[in-house]
Design brief:
The protein is mainly α and 269 residues long. It is built from eight helices and no strands.
């Protein structure tokens, strides 16, 4: 009887957690879709979009360059060592740039957006919840999702696309310095491999990934901030949860998109 009771309570607890998880996922999608639904009404969120875009660009540009430069040099080091053993050291640049474009750039942009910008968004929305600003906006017949979430969704997604481009340029520069100056590879050979391996679809998918990842980071940040516990401790926990959940969703979606892309557009070389 005791074992049966424990088993029943265990199943009940698991079912409750599953229902809670699915409910949170549903609310997250609702906030994201509701935020995108009023995209056409630019008058209500245009200034907030410009302010959020400037803020995100200001707090993420320098960190993403500081991450990308040594990252490109490190990848060039590892690939260059292997390529030198195979007698194909001139292909190092192509491998570095292709890796940056296809995988590293959107992931790095998303992580910086979620870590630097998303945490600030969560804290801002949580502070508004504590001060009852969200309830006050609803009292004045102003939808807080349309006024606050919509501009953050678009600002985060647009800045993420720009950051992905910055990651590619900075990472390629870091790899160039290491590969050309230290491993005596000619500049022409460094860029020739990338030109022959990259396709236009690679760049388009990278931009699409960056846009989606930035959208996810902002949606998670806003949801966690708007639904945090009404206390400073609750805001801090919401910031931690937002970063972890955003990272998990970004990596999962990246795997899905990359798998579908390579099945639909297999490499030609």
């Amino acid at each position: 009887m005791v074992t049966a009771g424990l088993s029943t309570r265990l199943r009940t607890g698991i079912a409750a957690r599953v229902r809670s998880f699915l409910g949170e996922v549903g609310e997250l999608f609702v906030i994201a879709l509701e935020g995108l639904r009023r995209t056409w009404d630019v008058r209500t969120w245009g200034w907030e979009f410009a302010e959020q875009s400037w803020f995100l660009a200001r707090v993420t540009s320098v960190p993403v360059m500081l991450v990308s430069l040594p990252l490109g040099a490190t990848v060039a080091l590892q690939v260059g060592q292997l390529a030198s053993q195979l007698g194909a050291q001139s292909s190092t640049g192509g491998a570095v740039i292709v890796g940056l474009v296809r995988e590293v750039a959107p992931i790095a942009a998303a992580l910086i957006i979620a870590g630097a910008g998303g945490s600030a968004m969560t804290a801002d929305m949580g502070a508004r919840r504590i001060r009852d600003e969200l309830a006050a906006m609803e009292t004045m017949a102003v939808n807080p999702v349309h006024r606050l979430v919509t501009p953050r969704l678009w600002a985060s997604s647009m800045v993420a696309m720009l950051l992905a481009s910055l990651v590619i340029v900075s990472g390629a520069a870091g790899g160039f310095v290491f590969n050309v100056l230290l491993q005596d590879v000619t500049p022409g050979a460094y860029f020739a491999g990338a030109v022959s391996l990259l396709q236009t679809s690679d760049l388009l998918v990278t931009l699409l990934k960056s846009w989606l990842f930035g959208l996810i980071a902002a949606a998670v940040a806003c949801y966690m901030g708007m639904n945090c516990a009404a206390s400073p401790v609750g805001v801090g926990r919401a910031v931690n949860r937002a970063i972890v959940v955003a990272f998990m969703l970004v990596f999962a979606l990246n795997y899905v998109i990359s798998t579908v892309y390579f099945v639909a557009f297999p490499p030609t070389h």
